[in-house]
Design brief:
This protein is 40% helix and 19% strand. The protein is an alpha+beta fold and 172 residues long. The longest helix is centred in the first third of the chain and has 27 residues.
């Protein structure tokens, strides 16, 4: 009879642990699947090498890549509460990660996830989004060769945090 109580107790503990693991995964913003890449130290000291594409001159480190049903899903974690819709800059950052995942892992992600504190957005990696990020990368390359590039915003806070502020003649 004691063995029955021990077995029942172990079964209940297993159920509670599975439930807790499920809750933790939901709050992390990760889809179901196996985490194959992480750029956080939350799971240990090892941080993966950046993904790189020499043809595009593009390097990036998504927060996570999850393998789900043979597909790779990049996940970008943002601090703070979610906006009504994800910011364009966040979408294009995720699109760059999708591009890098395809180039480095040989499989095109069907979508990526932007995880905010209180909400997740699944962003389809469409041909249109791929073309948009390629256009942005081409524009960046053109601007790198230009002698005079105009500031692209009117946001003081953005200027304050800019790494080029000390040499910029257009700072706000």
């Amino acid at each position: 009879m004691n063995y029955l109580y021990v077995a029942l107790g172990l079964f209940l503990i297993a159920i509670v642990l599975l439930w807790r693991a499920s809750q933790t995964q939901k709050t992390s913003g990760l889809p179901g699947g196996r985490v194959i890449y992480t750029d956080t130290r939350a799971w240990g000291e090892k941080v993966e090498k950046p993904l790189y594409d020499g043809n595009l001159g593009l390097t990036g480190k998504p927060d996570y890549i999850v393998e789900k049903n043979g597909r790779y899903i990049p996940v970008e974690v943002k601090s703070g509460r979610a906006p009504q819709a994800p910011y364009d800059a966040h979408i294009f950052q995720l699109a760059a990660y999708c591009l890098l995942v395809e180039k480095n892992l040989g499989s095109r992600p069907p979508y990526g996830i932007i995880h905010y504190e209180d909400r997740d957005f699944a962003i389809d990696y469409t041909n249109e989004l791929e073309n948009a990020i390629l256009d942005i990368l081409a524009e960046i390359r053109r601007d790198e060769r230009r002698a005079d590039v105009q500031r692209s915003h009117e946001v003081t806070a953005r200027c304050t945090r800019c790494g080029f502020r000390n040499v910029c003649e257009q700072k706000l």
